[in-house]
Amino acid sequence: MNKLNDKLDSVVRTVLEEYKWHRSIFTECSNTNAKLYDKLDTFTSHIIAVTKDLKALFSGNTSYVTKTQLQLHNISEALAKAVVHLSEADEKQTNVILQQMKFIDTYSGIYFVNPTPSLNNSFEVYRDGSSNFGFGGNWTLFQRRFDGSVDFNRSWAEYRDGFGDLDGEHWLGLEKLKRLLDTERHELLVVLEDFDGVIAHARYDKFMIGNEAEGFKLKSLGKYSGSAGDTQSCVPNKIKTTVWDISTCQDGNLLPIEVRVDPN
């Protein structure tokens, strides 16, 4: 009987120990599950929040796209109107520019010109935009004499390069004159005045000279018109030969005060 009781006690103790062990395992699992559920709840909350954010972002982007499309539409309409206004303004501006160009054409003064852009070598000229002496405006002066302030008894190099003051008496220079004449056909106008102030002129419609190697020789004058007499003596001798002398035309009292060129 005692042995049976001992075995029974042993079995009870074993069952109790296993129960305690399973209970501890169950408790641990319960705690773990609780933690997992907590984490799951947190994760679910995050998912819900992110979903809301995504919906809000999508809704915001849709509004942004719609707003942008509206802005682009408004810009397109504004550009279309601007094109119309620009066309109208362009026509007005063109008229203004044309009027300004007419004014510029009547302005006498010193201008920069570059007849041969490939040389990248511009130079100054005096352009008479007035209708002095009744010959119209926009002539380029390459000889101007009116008060004797400049000595025209100069060397060949000076006649080639030019001398004097463009605002006063001057000789532009044969090299520069040649560059001007090479661009297109030019007229030549020689304005002369006698001691009594009587003005005469000689005008030629096709003025051409040679280069420096040719001594800037006169090659063409073209058709003559004017009141000074149809004679080449009205043309400065420096162009005809290589020796400068004041020309006198047919009337020995007529001296050239201005020699001009202009495209025709």
From TrEMBL:
Coiled coil: none
Family matches, as Pfam families: Fibrinogen_C
Domain Fibrinogen C-terminal intervals: 85-264
GO cellular component: extracellular space
InterPro entries according to UniProt: Fibrinogen-like_C, Fibrinogen_a/b/g_C_1, Fibrinogen_a/b/g_C_dom, Fibrinogen_C-term_domain
Protein name per its UniProtKB record: Fibrinogen C-terminal domain-containing protein
Organism listed in the record: Anopheles farauti
